[in-house]
Amino acid sequence: MTVTAVPTPTRRYPPRRKPTRSGKRYLIRTFGCQMNEHDSERIAGLFELDGMVRTDSLEDADVIFINTCTIRENADNRLYGTLGHLKKLKDARPEALLVVGGCAAQKDRELVRERAPWVDVVMGTHNLDRVLDLMDHAEEWGGITEVVDELEAMPSVLPVRREQPHSAWVTIQIGCNNTCTFCIVPSVRGPEVSRRPGDVISEVERLAAEGVVEVTLLGQNVDTYGRDLAIGGRRRPIFADLLRQVGAVEGIRRVRFTSPHPADFRREVALAMAETEAVCEQLHLPLQSGSDRILARMHRGYNRQRFMDRLAMAREIIPDLTVTTDVIVGFPGETDEDFEMTMEVIEEARFDSAFMFIFSPRPGTAAAEMTDQFVDPEVVQERFQRLVETQNRISAERNAEWVGRTVEVLSEGPSKKDPSVATTRTRGGKVVHVPGEYAPGTFLDVELTEAYQHHLVGRPV
To answer: Distances from the Cα of 10 to the Cαs of 123, 147, 148, 161, in angstroms?
Structure first.
């Protein structure tokens, strides 16, 4: 039986909890951004509260949760490839529960059900707290789809199973009010909804009491955080205030955040970063394109000069600032001249690193309708290769500027490639490999001795 409940919470299935699944094994696979990673941690927390235990083996799992992404076409392909592979497992073990959640499930609920009818539960991004109840109903009734189209308010705090005991995500905002023509996020996450500052601080205080020393604040556009709350009777962003309050929580030594928006990044946020000791000298400022014409077609809300002015302001106020960015190559209508403008900005801005993407049309976005202006794939690939080579050179040069300096790093545990080396991270987010064994959450000072494109090497001092 397949039932769809949309679009409001009032049409959801009623809660009905069976006895817990004590001893059952679960596996979660996550595609996409930090928001999805945090959602998966909360799903894991609910599963373990229900008595389940984690496994890394598909063959052993009694419950499989696929947390999906839909930001690019490749993410969709990975989802349906994964679901096709899981059909064999479902045929062999029909009692195993297969749950699909996340952004692709939110956007393409009917398509997921149509292409993978063996899935037991399809659920969206706004009803994570319902996963156990939906699994109960699916066991009794068969396949269930429940998607809530829009949040009325931020949900209550859910239990979390963190990957690292010393580090935690903290959601401060869900949704986005921007209209970037290439982005599907407003469709799958809904309009912007901010969490009350007191709730955020209370969660950070609880995390600190549990031994967490590093938190990352999550939102689609953190610079507009709080504008919808009208605190003090004024509809204004209060992200700078939040940074100062989170940074003042005893026991929290590092505060990071993602993602800001160049159109909304303000001087008061840069000052809060510089003046609050716990807030790290790290800023992700998505450029997307260096061409004013393409930025206008993207509906980004800034031009090249405004972006560079904001970047210069941040670097002037915050010493040793590490800056990363996003760049899209091959946006509809992009000419050779537009691309050269992007390359000029890359050379001038000298980002520490960049997430570089080839444009992927997402159904439901304005850019996907610009079919008559799609750029020749061979031309796009050539441009992309040039961009990657240029940014890799700059990244290596930027890292080389740190050689010889002594910095504080935080251990994330043994390197996956070489267990005799610890993977650590600077306050600016740079990866540093350090010989020796250092438990996750260990702070140490290291002298940086070697630099490469994507990491540095250090020795303890």
So the answer is: 15, 12, 9, 29
Residue 392 three-state SS: helix
The domain defined by 164-280 folds into Transcription Regulator spoIIAA (3.30.750)
Per-residue pLDDT at 330: 97
Residue 9 has pLDDT above 60, yes or no: no
Cα 394 from Cα 356, distance rounded (Å): 14
Q: Is domain 406-460 classified as CATH 2.70.98?
A: no
Percent over 70 (pLDDT), the chain: 93
pLDDT at 74: 73
| Residue 214, SS3 per DSSP | strand
Q: Using CA atoms in the order 50, 169, 182, 30, what is the torsion angle rounded to 10 degrees? A: -40
Could you say which architecture CATH assigns to the domain 291-401?
A: 2-Layer Sandwich (3.30)
pLDDT tens string 379-398? 999 999 999 999 999 999 99
Give the start-end residues of each E strand in 201-352. Answer: 214-218, 254-258, 282-284, 322-329
Q: Would you call 451 helix, strand, or coil by DSSP? A: strand
